UniProtKB/TrEMBL annotation:
<dbReference type="InterPro" id="IPR011711">
    <property type="entry name" value="GntR_C"/>
</dbReference>
<keyword id="KW-0805">Transcription regulation</keyword>
<protein>
    <submittedName>
        <fullName>DNA-binding transcriptional regulator, GntR family</fullName>
    </submittedName>
</protein>
<dbReference type="Pfam" id="PF00392">
    <property type="entry name" value="GntR"/>
</dbReference>
<dbReference type="GO" id="GO:0003700">
    <property type="term" value="F:DNA-binding transcription factor activity"/>
</dbReference>
<keyword id="KW-0804">Transcription</keyword>
<dbReference type="InterPro" id="IPR036388">
    <property type="entry name" value="WH-like_DNA-bd_sf"/>
</dbReference>
<dbReference type="Pfam" id="PF07729">
    <property type="entry name" value="FCD"/>
</dbReference>
<feature type="domain" description="HTH gntR-type">
    <location>
        <begin position="1"/>
        <end position="68"/>
    </location>
</feature>
<dbReference type="InterPro" id="IPR008920">
    <property type="entry name" value="TF_FadR/GntR_C"/>
</dbReference>
<dbReference type="InterPro" id="IPR036390">
    <property type="entry name" value="WH_DNA-bd_sf"/>
</dbReference>
<dbReference type="InterPro" id="IPR000524">
    <property type="entry name" value="Tscrpt_reg_HTH_GntR"/>
</dbReference>
<keyword id="KW-0238">DNA-binding</keyword>
<dbReference type="GO" id="GO:0003677">
    <property type="term" value="F:DNA binding"/>
</dbReference>
Amino acid sequence: MLRSQDIARSLEQQIVFGRLHPGQRLIEDELLAQFDATRHQVRSALEALVSEGLATKVRNKGVHVRSYTPTEISELYEIRDILQTAAIRRMPLPCPPETVAHLQKLCDAHCAATAPHDLLTLNDAFHETIFALCGNRMLADEVAAHTRATHPIRSRGFFDAEYLSIARREHQQMVDALRDGDRDALIALNSRHIERPKQRYLEMRAALDLA
């Protein structure tokens, strides 16, 4: 039997991979059967998703995967850009050779990965390693938390070959900028890297609204 934390992480991955869609209701009885869990464990997992911004809870309507309005999306990504730029400005550059070597291994592994779980794990490890370089644990944690909150927005990128190719190329460019100590290039790269999924999601929402 899984712990509530394991259930929450499994649901988070299902949101990232697009198996659970924005606005979709998370039904307790279905989750009880899916995870062979107790009701307490399922409710604790759902509460964790709500606290992390991945789901919302409405009285008498249950828990749903978070669905953002266009304004909320723009505001969330603006905060991400502010936090990540602040973290990059604090990083001592150029990076030590051993850190660059570690990031290069993560970058290469991400390029070779095909399974969605591996892509997510390696992508998260790559970015968390970069932002840990800022030397401020609380700032790095805020970067990670706001990144996690965008999971419902980023989901389709894991299955789009062109999107994935661009992301991998930008990862390599980030490693190069860290090695060369090019802070301005890294800031610009980071902003482009997080802007693409935002625009993609907004375009998708607009198309659905017109349908």
